[in-house]
Design goal:
Elements lengths: L1 H7 L2 H6 L10 H6 L8 E5 L2 H9 L1 E3 L6 E3 L21 H18 L7 E5 L4 H13 L22 H6 L14 E4 L9 E11 L11 E9 L2 E6 L3 E3 L8 E2 L1 H5 L2 H5 L14 H13 L13 H13 L3 H7 L19 H11 L2 H19 L13 E7 L5 H13 L2 E4 L3 E3 L3 H8 L7 E7 L7 E2 L12 E3 L4 E7 L3 E7 L5 H7 L11
Parallel strand pairs: 1-4, 14-18
Antiparallel strand pairs: 2-3, 5-6, 5-9, 6-7, 7-8, 10-12, 11-14, 12-17, 13-16, 15-16, 17-18
Helix pairs in contact: 4-5, 10-11, 10-14, 11-12
């Protein structure tokens, strides 16, 4: 209890609250707990016979640590023989635990009279969660400064300014009818997607995520199964193909990039491409360049000639050209993910948008860049990075869908990948300068690189900017999320073939076969 009391007095709990799972367990603990402000007690009711089935039919895979259930989550047939039952899931142990629970719960509940909400635990898991959300939504979580509550992107109540900063719609930045949007409100509509059908100003009744009496913009969204409404602060554009666009390994394998990537060793590696083939690819890509909306972008003859001249002037031309600030035309969008006015941004947005025509034209150029990052052209030996910490400053925060991918990758300990080339520096001050060069906010990426790492290259010796440190990662490089918040994300670089090999082994493939899917 002393440990619990000390923890519950920490600033994060005092500011945002917390959820205690299966605590307090005894009347003594409950009595010591009365000094804290307990808002609700959620009691999940399940008949005893169901609880016995749920517990006694659980099975553990000792190799993976995964829990299966003979009735509700049957294991694959091929691993059934190795599964074991935990000691505390035996019928005798479960019976003792239930008896102990019943004895204590009757003595504990009176301490929370008027605050207990009983939930029907026999319903489907999603329905039980919805019932819990309804119970919690009845609480007054908000304040006049933070009138919104229930957005999965935030830990607690939040303001419209904070939602706007994170990329959600607001009264100053409303969606248009027909726009595709995704809902981030906790509950039944979480991650529900559809088209905006109607927009109206309303005063809140306090039951739908906005403090009672406050004015907001209510948006109606339709999808294949019907329609739903929520405040604009819970809706984000359904677009994850912004600058520094993110995807999972599944996203890589289902991308146009993967389908168009010609490599005998698979998408985790690269084959050699000649300088002339890359030059022809560069010329064709620029001549037929399209923006994120599929509209043609004209690169005039003078600019085309200058780009090709720059390409021809250097031995490692594909990488050198990427480091320049070579302009291709006039900037027509302040959104970095829609900006094709500078060469390196146009190339990265070609990768981010994953449009087949642009990618097909640019692929030999991209392949040569990847080869130059991973191999020495003279003898085809692997290049290794010495390791260390690097930073990258983006002028814009990741869109809500990409932030959600980062959270999920951290929670599930999965690989996250950037679709584009990632240019980083070992000078944190320089990264901070890039981060704040537009609206003064931006987003900071911190990347730790293991020593003797294959998958990135220090290109300061060929960079257009003399003596500027620069480490460049190829498209779809693999990272693990160490930590993140609304201002920065800390990543660990891992082998770009990670999870590709795992998938192959699960399918019984060996050698390099896993990278040829």
């Amino acid at each position: 209890m002393r440990i619990m009391q000390e923890r519950l007095c920490k600033p994060d709990v005092m500011n945002r609250g917390c959820l205690l799972d299966n605590f307090p367990l005894t009347a003594e603990q409950a009595n010591a707990f009365v000094t804290f402000q307990i808002e609700k007690v959620l009691l999940v009711d399940v008949p005893e016979e169901d609880l016995i089935v749920r517990a006694t039919q659980r099975r553990l895979d000792p190799l993976t640590g995964r829990i299966y259930h003979l009735k509700y989550r049957p294991p694959p047939r091929e691993i059934s023989a190795r599964l074991v039952q935990r000691d505390d899931d035996s019928e005798e142990s479960v019976a003792k635990r239930l008896a102990e629970y019943k004895r204590h719960i009757q003595a504990t509940l009176p301490f929370f009279e008027g605050k207990v909400v009983r939930l029907d635990g026999t319903k489907a898991p999603a329905e039980v969660v919805d019932l819990a959300c309804v119970a919690l939504d009845s609480l007054e979580w908000t304040s006049e400064d933070l009138p919104y509550f229930g957005n999965a992107a935030f830990a607690g109540p939040f303001s419209m300014e904070k939602a706007t900063r994170a990329g959600f719609y607001s009264p100053e930045h409303l969606p248009d009818e027909g726009d595709k949007a995704v809902c981030f409100q906790r509950g039944a509509n979480w991650q529900r997607r559809g088209k905006v059908a109607e927009i109206s100003e309303r005063q809140s009744d306090g039951k739908s995520g906005l403090r009672k009496g406050f004015d907001g913009v209510l948006v109606s969204v339709t999808d294949g199964s019907g329609s739903f409404s929520c405040w604009s602060a819970f809706l984000a554009p359904m677009n994850d193909r912004e600058y520094s666009s993110l995807c999972t390994t599944h996203g890589l394998l289902s991308s146009n990039f993967c389908a168009l990537y010609p490599c005998s060793k698979g998408v985790g590696d690269v084959d050699f491409v000649s300088k002339e083939a890359a030059r022809q690819s560069l010329q064709k890509w620029l001549a037929e360049l399209e923006d994120s909306e599929g509209e043609a972008l004209e690169v005039n003859e003078e600019t085309m000639e200058m780009v090709l001249k720059l390409f021809a002037s250097q031995e490692e031309s594909s990488l050198y050209l990427y480091t320049t600030n070579q302009k291709l035309g006039r900037r027509i969008s302040l959104v970095t993910g829609q900006d094709y006015s500078i060469y390196y941004r146009a190339l990265n947005n070609t990768l981010n948008c994953d449009a087949a025509r642009n990618l097909s034209n640019a692929m030999p150029l991209v392949q040569r860049m990847i080869f130059s990052l991973l191999y020495n052209e003279k003898d085809s030996s692997m290049r290794y990075h010495a390791g260390g910490r690097v930073w990258k400053g983006d002028t814009q925060r990741p869109v809500p869908l990409n932030m959600q991918k980062l959270r999920e990758a951290q929670r599930l300990e999965k690989i996250i990948r950037f679709r584009q080339f990632q240019s980083t520096t070992d000078d944190k001050a320089l990264a901070e300068k890039y981060r704040t060069r537009e609206d003064g906010r931006g987003y900071l990426w911190i990347i730790d690189i293991p020593s003797h790492f294959w998958g990135a290259r220090d290109i300061h010796d060929i960079s257009w900017k003399n003596k500027e440190s620069e480490t460049l990662f190829p498209p779809y490089s693999a990272f693990r999320v160490q930590s993140l918040d609304e201002n920065q994300c800390h990543l660990l670089a891992v082998d770009r073939r990670s999870e590709l090999t795992d998938r192959a082994e699960r399918h019984g493939w060996g050698g390099t076969r896993e990278l040829q899917i």
